[in-house]
Amino acid sequence: MKETAVVTGASSGFGLLTALELAQQGFYVFAAMRNPEKGSELVRKAEAIGVSEQIEILQLDVTKEESIDNFKGLVQHMSRLDVLVNNAGYAGAGFVEEIPLSEYRTQFETNVFGLIAVTQACLPVMRANRKGKIINVSSISGKIGFPGLSPYVASKHALEGWSECLRLEMKPFGVEVSLVEPGSFKTNIWSTGKQITEKSLQVDSPYYSYMQKLDNELKRGESSYGDPTDVAKMIAEIARAKEPSLRYPIGKGVRTSLALKNVLSWKRWERIFLKKLT
Ligand SMILES: NC(=O)c1ccc[n+]([C@@H]2O[C@H](COP(=O)([O-])OP(=O)(O)OC[C@H]3O[C@@H](n4cnc5c(N)ncnc54)[C@H](OP(=O)(O)O)[C@@H]3O)[C@@H](O)[C@H]2O)c1
C-alpha cells in the first residue's frame, strides 16, 4: 500500500502545492478542504502533471465538530497514515483594543484548536504503527510579535509551544513532529486569508495612521514575497526525512530576523522595529 498523507487547507496556497508535491513523490494524498467545490484548481493542476489518481479530495472544516467526527471515522479505517500536514489557517489582524474577544476565539478555533482536533484524530493510527510525521505550518509570527497582527501571532506562538510538547510526547512512539516557519510568501493569506477587524480600518480609529504605515510597509515588501512552491518542496523534504528537526524557518530574511531577535536586547530590537513602523 502506498504511503499516505493528509494535507489540510489544500484548496489554495501552500496546502494545494504541498498536495501536488507529495503526490509527485509517490504519496496517496487526502487533500482536505472545508469547501470541496474549491478543489477544481487542485484537480486541474494534478491532471496536468499526471498525479490526479493519487489525490483524493476530502471535506474538512477544522472548526466544525461534525466535520472532525467524519474525518476521525475515515482515519480510524486507515491501515497507515504516514504524514499529516496541518496547514489550514488564516491571519486575524487589527489592534488589540479594537478586536472583539470573539475574533480572538475564532482565530484560535482554526489555527490552534482545529489543528489540535485534526492531530488527535490522526495520533492513534500513527502511534499504533510507531511511524508518522506531523508537520505543522507555523510562521515567523510564531517566533516574533508584530503590531496589528496579535490574533495571528498569538495563535502561531501557541502552536509553537504545543508542537514542542507533542514532539516530546510522540518521539518515544516513533512519531516525529516538525514546525515550518515561513516568512512572507505569495498566497491568498494576504487577501482573502487576512481578516482585519472592522474598527481598525475606520478613519476615526486612533490606530488608523499606524495601520496605514503597517499596510504601506507590507505593500513595499510585496514584490519580494517568496514562491510558495519552495515551502511545499520543503514540506515534502521533511515528509521524506529520516530524522526531521523540530523547526524549519524559510523565506527571505527569516533566519536573520530570528538570529537578531535572539542576540539583541529587547530594547534595541523594539527601537529598530518601531523606527521602521511608526
Ligand atoms: N503565505 C504566507 O506568507 C504565510 C507565512 C507564514 C505562514 N503561513 C501559513 O501557511 C498556512 C497556509 O496559508 P497560505 O499562505 O497557503 O494561505 P491561503 O492560500 O489563504 O490558504 C489557507 C488555507 O486554509 C484554509 N482554511 C482556512 N480556514 C479553514 C478552516 N476553518 N477549515 C479548513 N480549512 C481552512 C483555506 O480554505 P478556504 O480556501 O476555504 O478559505 C485555505 O485552503 C496557514 O497556516 C498560514 O498561517 C503563510
Describe this structure in words.
It is built from 9 helices and 9 strands. By secondary structure, it is of the alpha/beta class. It has one domain: Rossmann fold (3-Layer(aba) Sandwich). The strands form 2 sheets. A 7-stranded parallel β-sheet has the order 3-2-1-4-6-7-9, sandwiched between helices. Strands 5-8 form a two-stranded parallel ribbon. Helix 1 (13-24) links the parallel strand 1 and strand 2 (28-33). The longest helix is centred in the middle third of the chain and has 29 residues, at 101-129. Bound molecules: NADP nicotinamide-adenine-dinucleotide phosphate. NADP nicotinamide-adenine-dinucleotide phosphate binds at residues 8-9, 11-15, 33-35, 38, 61-63, 87-90, 110, 114, 137, 139, 182, 184-185, 187-189, 193.
How would you summarize the topology of this molecule?
Layout: E1 4-7, H1 13-24, E2 28-33, H2 40-48, E3 55-59, H3 65-76, E4 83-86, E5 91-93, H4 101-129, E6 132-137, H5 150-170, E7 175-182, E8 194-196, H6 208-221, H7 228-240, E9 247-250, H8 254-263, H9 266-277
Parallel strand pairs: 1-2, 1-4, 2-3, 4-6, 5-8, 6-7, 7-9
Helix pairs in contact: 1-2, 1-7, 3-4, 4-5
The chain binds NADP nicotinamide-adenine-dinucleotide phosphate (NAP).
